[in-house]
Amino acid sequence: QVQLAESGGRPVQTGASLRLSCAASGDTFALYSMAWFRQAPGEAREFVGGMSWASDEARYGNYGKGRFTIVRGDPRKMVYLEMNNLKPDDAGVYYCAATSDSIHYSAAPTNDYEYDYWGQGTQVTVSS
Fold it and tell me: How far apart are CA 36 and CA 3, in angstroms?
């Protein structure tokens, strides 16, 4: 089993930057990819970006592209989401996800159903 814990979400003003952290614990050796998803009120979870541990390159969704950066920390244990120039529309709950399916060895999947493990989420609020 793997446990994921997000942190770093808080209220900020438009234009601010935030760094979200995701710490994995438990059987992290079994993980192949980790990712961040965003969920706004009343909307489905949306892929923000992710990274496989075999690759040095992150993969991004359309949301936040150019403003958000995935940063890899301690392999299979930490992944960060750096968010710049935040806008009110960026508000929502940000979830960390991880997969232990070896098919995702080389690239992080973009669909939420492809992830086995989820954190509780961290809330980001952006005021204008």
Answer: 15
56-110 pLDDT, tens digit each: 789 999 888 899 999 988 887 899 999 999 999 999 999 999 999 988 888 999 9
As to burial, measured by CB atoms within 10 angstroms (0-12 exposed, 13-18 middle, 19+ buried), residue 89 is exposed
What is the full DSSP assignment across the chain?
-EEEEEE---EEETT--EEEEEEEEESGGG--EEEEEEE-TTS--EEEEEEETT-S-EEE-STTTTTEEEEE-STTTEEEEEE-S--GGG-EEEEEEEE--GGGSSS--SSGGG-SEE---EEEEEE-
The sheet with strand 78-83 has its strands ordered as 2-7, 18-26, 78-83, 68-72
